């Protein structure tokens, strides 16, 4: 190739001169650029030679450097011009290509639409000539599907979609049996893959999977048998699921289905969910079998806890493939849910057995001993029940405990009421028996108050997410029951409204026991005093004319009546008798609940105070207004009053206001000196 001659530009040339020269040439841009580069290199060589000459001739170095800089600038300008020209040329070529491609695509789309319409019309015509129940030929249905997919890229016609789906329904209706026969054939994999291909071409893969799933559900019916324990029922079912899972996975399933592990797990899960009644029956029968050997239900409650623990452990660390483990876990969750239908009955029955107190003696002392032992046992068993329910179900256990405790309290109220009427409402009740009854009542109230707090704590934590996965899932299943449970709660912290009423009734009975005990402890004092006062006051309105003023004994020489001194001595003796109960915490609880105190420091003093009040009330009520009494009687009564006041002072008991006011009446009448 001949060398390209680079023109000599005028002294004041610019870029336009260079561009005009490049555009005037027919050679490729690259060739021009190389020619320019060669010219530049030649110029540089010439410059270097000139520089050497200048160096040799010791000319001014500044002029040479300026020349080099000018050449470098020229080179950069040339490169910039050439690059700009190349980009403009390429851009024009790309625009032309884009326009061509767009036109080509439009033409292709138009051809595609026309061909699809033609295919649609032709295949529809074939179908319309068939009998209404006769399926269309396979190639016709497939061509129709392809035509529809091509047309649906550009426009949506619902009528075409409906028509196509009906055609596919008729065509595929014959394949359900073919799928089953293919599964049962000697070459299930090959036969099923051919059929699956047709379903995929017709976009009916889901229908294919549904038929397979339905077949697997029918061929793998799970039987849930009555077991000795719920954990055995869970483990046996797990083994049964794993056996079917592995057997199918090792066969045609793995080669035909896209995601065989998940598919089998979902199929088994749906099958299990359709057998809810069978699972519930197996659960109920297993619990029933346990109760045959465990009438109290204690071991049955432990059995349910054991199953829940096994389930929680499996959910946290399943040993099986995660897909089938999901199916097994759902079965376990449903089985645990089934136990909740039985749990309240179990707890109620267990507590009822403990609270069904019968007495094999007619003697009050012996019956009180039996009652005390039964109450102690009941407290232990109820604590056991609360612990078991909380360990089994967490805070959800409160919704099973409340109905059981409601029945328990109602039963206790009935028993206590009957016991009171039989043994405590008699005239010959002994002091120690009445006091023992109060102690038992205090024991009951302490237990009930503790239960109230424990149930309240469980309720307050009811909405808290449980760490245990089994309990957390159960909470979701019981959301409706939990919501209904919340609606029945009182706002005063007592929890369930019916429980609050039962507790209030037991507190009311405790007050009755204490009031009756005060009557029993003070009955001799009050009875003798009442009889004595009534005896000396038979003629209280008539002056005793037999006793003359000269023979009257001064007040300081008058002694208290015997029944009054007897009452004082009896009160002092009672204080000693009651000292044996000074450390009785149950009796203290009964007093605290009845009197609404924070605490009681001295139990004997509290009883003495109540008996002293009874004596004061008896004295005040029987003496009444002294203004109509004889001076002799008033003097005697003032002596009796003073003696009693001294006794109350020694005992440290409180005087009622009417008793205090009576002293003023004696002072006003001149029988006592002012304080």
From TrEMBL:
Cellular component terms (Gene Ontology): Golgi membrane; Golgi transport complex
Family of the protein in this entry: Belongs to the COG7 family.
Annotated TM spans: none
Name of the protein in its database record: Conserved oligomeric Golgi complex subunit 7
Keywords recorded for this protein, A-Z: Coiled coil, Golgi apparatus, Membrane, Protein transport, Transport
Organism: Setaria digitata
Subcellular location: Golgi apparatus membrane
GO biological process: Golgi organization; intracellular protein transport; retrograde vesicle-mediated transport, Golgi to endoplasmic reticulum
Domain of life, source organism: Eukaryota
Topology versus the membrane: Peripheral membrane protein
Coiled coil: 33-60
